[in-house]
Amino acid sequence: MINFNVPPAVGNEIEFIKDAIDTRKISGDGKYTKKCSEWFKNRTKTKGILLTTSCTHATELAALLCDIQPGDEVIMPSYTFVSTADAFVLRGAKPIFVDIRPDTMNINEKLIENAITEKTKAIVPVHYAGVACEMDAIMAIAKKYNLYVIEDAAQGVMSEYKGRALGTIGDAGCYSFHETKNYSMGEGGAILIQDDEKMELAEIIREKGTNRSKFFRGQIDKYTWVEAGSSYLPSELNAAYLYAQLEKADEIYDNRMAIWNRYYQELEELEDQGYIQRPVVPEGCKHNAHMFYIKARDLEERTRLLSYLKENGVMAVFHYIPLHSAPAGKRYGEFRGEDKYTTIESERLARLPLYYGLKDEDQTRVIELIKAFYRGK
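Structure (tokenized):
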């Protein structure tokens, strides 16, 4: 069986985890947490970054920093993972779903303004497949209406928009290091923050509402409870696992990009013949080869394609069920405007195996099977 995903491992994970254990500092904010944070600061040119226990928790932390309150509205795409909405629903806010662009599967920036009301507090662009949303337009709308922008860059580590790292453009950005992501710590995430005051508040909230981080830096002689908070601090063992991959981040990037480019090139003929559509990467966007997907004609054809691949030993999968069609989405949120593309495009999309270390012969097998499926049509 050719797996859809295999979590990355580059060789030094066990050594770094053992080193973390030997330091007797495994609860977090130790040697490897600091190493990871510095790596991201240097690579993304962000002002502040904090590792978190998940991207979900990073987004919850962003919602707290932006003071999301009951009754607020937060604009986002429906085609996203549940965490994008959950972070705001937990604060009593209402997710307002708008339609996506069919080319990138990202939020349609031209529809955001019509969804804004006096209750709107924030916009949450989701950079699907590591391909950037149209951030210039989104930031201009946010400035016009005095709204926060929280980037869901869960899939966007090492991606850029016009030379800027995803996650660094809005008021806050959220990364994921789940086992399905390009760089993993099993479960984990990070929040990127551009405002010094919000960075200080984020440190406090992340440490159960205490100023413990200041204490450990020697800025105060004792720490205490100063704000409502929670526990978003990941284990040092997780950070050690992640840092092993960050040391070889470019190697992982190059390997994934080679796999992505091969899919793109070898499936071109099927697109030319009108059978499928390949991903679109707009000018000015540098993606990270987080996933490679194709779009079949419709749901029925996609179902048959995925079944055919599975029967022949290949795990390919569909992706999100649009949130506005889910029970909780109907209860907590609202789709504003026409669902012209969200549902129909989501039903066409099939994700192909792509992970660091995917063997050439396995990728060849996937490509040949897809071609055979369409020849059989």
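The first helix runs from residue 13 to 22. The chain has two domains: 13-246, 249-376.
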